[in-house]
Amino acid sequence: HMKVTLPDPNARTVIGQRPLPGTRSTLPCPSLTSRSQYTAMIRLLTTVACLSTLGLASAQWLDPTFGTGGLVATSLNAGYDGAFSTLVQPDGKIVIAGSIAGNGGYDFLVARYLSDGALDTGFGTGGFTTHHERAQDFGRDVALQADGGLVVVGTSSGGGTDKVVMRFTADGDLDPSFGNAGVVIIDDSAVDDALWAVAVQPDQRIVIVGQGFNGTLRTFYIARLNTNGSFDPTFGNSGEYEHLIGNDFCWAQDVALMDDGRIVVVGTTYTAGISAHDVAVARYLATGALDSGFGTAGTVVIPWSVVTDGANAIAVLMDGSVLVAGSEGINPAYVTASKLLPDGTLDTDFGVNGTVRTYTGVSPTRCGAIAIDASDRILLAGTAAQDGTQRGSYLCRLTSDGVLDPSFGNSGELINGTPGVYEETPAMALQADGKIVLAGITGAGTAIDVRLIRYTDAAITSVRPLDGSFDMLIADDGGLELRSLNTGMVDYRIITSSGQLLKHGSVFTTSGARERITFEDRPSPGLHFITITSAYGSWTAKFMVQH
Q1: Cβ neighbours of residue 68 under 8 Å, at least 6 residues apart?
Q2: Which helix (H) or strand (E) holds 443?
Q3: How far apart are CA 517 and CA 505, in angstroms?
Q4: pTM of the full structure
Q5: I need a surface site. Which of 121, 186, 218, 307 has the fewest CB within 10 A?
Q6: CA angle, corner 376, sides to 375 and 379, nearest 5?
Q7: Mean pLDDT across the stretch 300-325?
């Protein structure tokens, strides 16, 4: 394999460090010129601090038409249920695959949601379906076929650990024409086997990747199945191919298809002598043979650091370049991504010498998914962790040259989390309208639920407090439209991010009706705050004005 050398990791430049919501952060200190401004700002700072603690710093990017303010938490039982993968169907419905507590362990879980975040009751039973094979069943990835069928891959253990492939119909039933009553079990060895990712080719054949075993060491594993679940004999060795990258064990975690039929896979390789985990990338021909035109004999190793690194996600660009992303280090730990040119060398015009490090935290900080939007911007989704108890959903957007996009979120990043609540979003899918769907888990203790988050691809001008007592939108001419759930007089104060009182007044609101607040001059672009006070309480929200 080819080994790519990086600069000294101790001398690296780390960009975009952000605290997890709920940790100490610094708010701007505006200049206050009157007692009324001071009173309003006290309310504002108190409320904004609460919003930050609750992980709503990303509120202006959350899609208010999805779930509750852009968030969905689905409890399917009293214990664990979580998503490891997601996709968006052409009709806008959202599918997740993962696991759910059941039968004394964990079962495979597949669920489908409507575009508004509600479970699709036309799928399975009440919107979800489960399948039990053994004591520990984990669904790791899902792919959509042309007829609406869903292929789910994962691992089943209990008296051995095997690779599992399942096909569900568009209604959520196991497809009896696939494998054995909808299920294919691949038992290649007596040790741990695993499937981590799946992709469906245009001809509907199914490519699966994960971990194999060569009799001595764990290996990169890739296979191709026909549409009925049988091995494709034209691929690899009777449908399968496994090999080592490096001298010790390795495994594959994600797969991407190229337009010409070649296949690119990313994972991790381990070197026992120095206890180092590095990123491993392999490119295969359509026949399953390693592509000698990539790296050294078809493989590349990228040592992000001298400790524990690993890649979980891969994407292929139109020119054949490859993006890989994952986690680097333990404490500190980074969300890290690299770009390889079509020949497998690092693209030195991307990030710093081919690699970008965004969020800085501790393990398990990581990237779990990559997506490329219609403007060729790069999205990385995963987990932001500051300590063992604070984990938040993480999303960042990079420009095509590997720089955090300052027009997105908070200097290129969005984090959603609550202190004491375990939250991760290792899965991501893009909608046709550019909205971004993240999927994962949320909860505390043994009560873990499916988490879905939907962000817009640009800041929106709609805000809503936590209790839903009012919402507000910004009209095209810059005026504000306020809707309250209560009837009565409402006092409002609008303040710029620098502390200037922009407008102060009162309006009488009728429950459910919109009342308009106009400006003599359109507010300047940038962040603003509005404080609403009525007989029912006081609320503060922030909104962005864009021209």
Answers
A1: none
A2: strand 436-444
A3: 9
A4: 0.77
A5: 121
A6: 105
A7: 93
